[in-house]
Amino acid sequence: MSHKIKFSIKGMTCQDCANKIEKELASLNGIEEASVSFVTAQAIVKYNPEAIEVTAIKKVFTSLGYAVTETRGSVTDAFEYKYKETARVFSVGILLLSSWLIHLLTGIPPVITDSMALAAIMIGGYPIASKAIKALIKRELNVDALVAIAASAAIAIGDYTEAGLVIFILLLGEFLESVTLARTTRAIKGLASLIPDTVKLKRGDLEVDVPSSEIKVGDVVVVRSGEHIAIDGVIVKGDATIDQSLITGESIPVERSSGDDVYSGTINKVGAVEIKATKVGRDTTVARIERMITEAQGRKAPVERTVDRFAKYFVPAILILSAIVFLATGDVRRAITVLIVACPCALVLGTPTAVVAAIGAAARRGILIKGGGALEAVGRVNGVIFDKTGTLTYGAPKVVAIKEVCGHKEEDIVQLAAVAEKFSEHPLAGAILDKAGEWELIIAAPDDFKVKKGQGIEVKHNGMHIVVGNRSLLRDNNIALSAAADEYMKDRERLGETALIVAHGTDKCNDICASDTHMPDAHIKDNFCCSKEVCGVISLSDTLRESSAEAIQSLRSGRIAIIALYTGDNLRTASAIARRLGIEEVAAGLLPEDKVNKIKALMEQGNTIAMVGDGINDAPALATADIGIAMGVVGSDIAVQAANIAILNDDILSVPKVINLGRKALSVIRQNLFFALVFNTVMIALASQGFISMIAAAVFHQTSSLMVILNSMRLLRWKRRF
């Protein structure tokens, strides 16, 4: 059975380092998959524990000169520089500044200042030289090798100060890159503060403070106002207003009471509750989200892998070009300058920085994108297929209309139906009972209870025979349905609603009231109709999400060519929903495999298709489409596994938003790659002609990398509107 492990890496200076580690890991027997990211300074390794041990995996990092620590579910700041790295940069800078000042202000022999410059070179150049030597031993060339060769050549011709300044500028640039890149990981860093160090565990009548890591499934914890919830669980006592914004992106706190689920990482704003733990530690929602984000940020986009392959040949090409410049001009300084300015750091940073920034921006808004491939694919989407139930609709029926018959009030009709449905498990029964609860009606238990499969339900209560169901059930009970009531039902059904007939009879009342006429007060007994008469019609519907129409309009205005509704529901209901939303293409009565086949047909025509579903019964279609987008999946492992993108905030508007984000990310990546290629070409041309010095080359080299990073960081300010 495969295991997955995550490492935090220290000492990487560019994406080339990450590529080198990834290559070494992939060459080991027992490694099934390895993804290393310079941007997040992490490696995620999938391995077979029967074929290789963790210690052997760690040796790969240390043998290449990198410090590595294993992280088990904790949220780490990959760019939290230790004192050693920071001290190295400042030590080199101080030594070079002191050397220059002493040379400028005193008459001390040059050997002193040169010695200080050499000391700066040794301090700053050691990690670069170490990694370069290890690469050369393995017969590989990397960026460290280019810098080491350039610095060594400068030292050989006596340019100690220039060599020291080049190393200092490169170190300073890497330091600034790390500080800047740290902003792109805030979506992960913020998760660490969501779990309190201690919680109040309930033991009998006592509350005991214990570390949150010691909570077990089944334990009951007490959470008061202002406290974070440390576990996933269900409220067993109390009411609270819960802020779920950091998990789902919902801006408005939600009300939760006994029986409701709550999630780790959320905040109790008002109230006190007792919560029974159902998931703890690594299994909680916040832990799963953290793992998903870090794994996603480490997954490379296809364009990134293409750039990495190109960069592998770029370094040897630069060495050859530098040699040609030296042979053509005889100027070793020009050749060294070419080596410095031509390092492809900006090129290889262009894609991963944009991917990490985009994924981080989306995560803060309750949208989890599973890797660079998913981000790139969603940016190319030109067709979106929606499931109906739970996606465009809420997935729960509600009472939307009540037709009064025989002089009954709406409250009487709902009360009759609620008595009949009190013990029913049908979803429509729940909607009727919810309506009765909303109106605070008293619902008595029926004396007798019979479910008529495919028809409805019959009960007896206080001498009354109550019938709730369809036309077939009425016919079986010899109850007449007037033409007007039947036409009303057809009108509601054409809207995609389900119309339930409510009727009842007693043994003491004569058949004196007509179905559509007002019954005289003398014949009304306890506000109930006479024997075997229809008393009303209740219409129920799976209500549309308020923002569904806006989402469809946003997609249409955003140049999405294909917008369709694929559902297993009947054509009448599906067509009614589609008409209200302006969706022209509808396919109803589909089995899961039918959805898959229709999506495949669209993809074979050259379309990039996104499937939007609830992530459970739509799993095959979600997995088949170019992009699977799962709605409302907090706490659902099935949805996270099936989809490429998980929308935790259950907001249908997040679909056009994430497509927009994908497009913006692709645009930023193209800008980065174009800038890096043009900039490198121009700088190499200037260096080979002697127009820039070694120090200027180092400055330009780091400037190009920072420009690419800053451009990618614009994605962190991504706006939520389409």
Automatic annotation (TrEMBL):
Main location: membrane
Any GO molecular function: metal ion binding
Membrane topology reported for the UniProt record: Multi-pass membrane protein
UniProt-listed PROSITE patterns: ATPASE_E1_E2, HMA_1, HMA_2
CDD domains per record: HMA, P-type_ATPase_HM
One GO cellular component term noted in the UniProt record for this chain: plasma membrane
HMA domain residues: 3-69
Record-annotated membrane-spanning stretches: 87-105, 163-182, 310-329, 335-360, 673-692
Cellular localisation: Cell membrane
Keywords per UniProt: ATP-binding, Cell membrane, Membrane, Metal-binding, Nucleotide-binding, Phosphoprotein, Translocase, Transmembrane, Transmembrane helix, Transport
Cell membrane keyword on record: yes
NCBIfam families reported for this sequence: ATPase-IB_hvy (TIGR01525), ATPase_P-type (TIGR01494)
Family: Belongs to the cation transport ATPase (P-type) (TC 3.A.3) family. Type IB subfamily.
Entry-linked PANTHER family: CADMIUM/ZINC-TRANSPORTING ATPASE HMA2-RELATED, CADMIUM_ZINC-TRANSPORTING ATPASE HMA4-RELATED
Protein known as: P-type Cu+ transporter
Organism listed in the record: Candidatus Hakubella thermalkaliphila
